[in-house]
């Protein structure tokens, strides 16, 4: 096992910058998910760790020692690709044992190691099958077995569940987490799937435009993201343009709906001037909606239900609020679908709880 350090890594491909000072650390045995939109540089970062590309500037270290001069086959890294990259003419056993054969191990040692690796991924008895005879989930398990059989110091997974359907993906998330916990291998998972990143990792690193925007434990990053763009990417969110009270943020923010809120600031080091414009974010599950009545509270405002979208256990309620400003405000709220007592066209009372309102710079970063 190994700790991993990526220090100020820069890389341009074809004259176009891909990595712009990436720095990230993985503790020994830790599982980190690298999350970001397509083209942000996350797969290039993984390839740099694996040794397939080398940065123009910066370095990669395993256990404090630079591996920049080491070729890929000498870094003792296990790799799982989105398409699994299994040899179609080889059996399951031959595919899993391939790396060990390249290392010159004996037939008996390879057979024993392959059997143990297949048992870990619950594929004992599949040794003689060809990849074409396996389901997508089984091929994914073979790829995992091939990666762990060499006892790697670092395990790199590039969109490992992207080719599976939803049901298989949910099941494999559980299996991947179990396997990583049992083996204690330092693991980097590259994904664009927010749910996958949150469920599999000890920490999540969000990446935009070749840079790490935020790193934290999954729950902390979801609940209190340091930037609005991180909040927008990591799940669903409502955003409002607000004005900080002339007396300062501690006095509250003024909203287009006419209510004053005491928003929380996730990153206190980013100065937000009194009286300046800012951006307020709140998750749909925290927006409170009830049928309108005469006993409206001071912190509530009226809205119209413009649509309902059923999502199984929850219903997304789309709201529109008339304001005296430039135009209407649109919000979404997630409410339990069972017993939902609002419908399209209703006027409802809406409340945005202070403790769930986060305040960011106006530009969102």
Characterize the structure shown.
The structure is a single chain. With 365 residues, this protein is of the alpha+beta class. The protein folds into two domains: 226 residues, P-loop containing nucleotide triphosphate hydrolases (Rossmann fold, 3-Layer(aba) Sandwich), CATH 3.40.50; 132 residues, OB fold (Dihydrolipoamide Acetyltransferase, E2P) (Beta Barrel), CATH 2.40.50. The chain has eight helices and 20 strands. The strands form four sheets. Strands 6-7-8-3-9-10 form a six-stranded mixed sheet, sandwiched between helices. A hairpin with a 2-residue loop joins β4 and β5. α2 runs parallel beside α4 and α3 crosses α4. The protein is elongated, with a radius of gyration of 25 Å. The chain starts with a strand and ends with a strand. The model has no long low-confidence stretch (mean pLDDT 90).
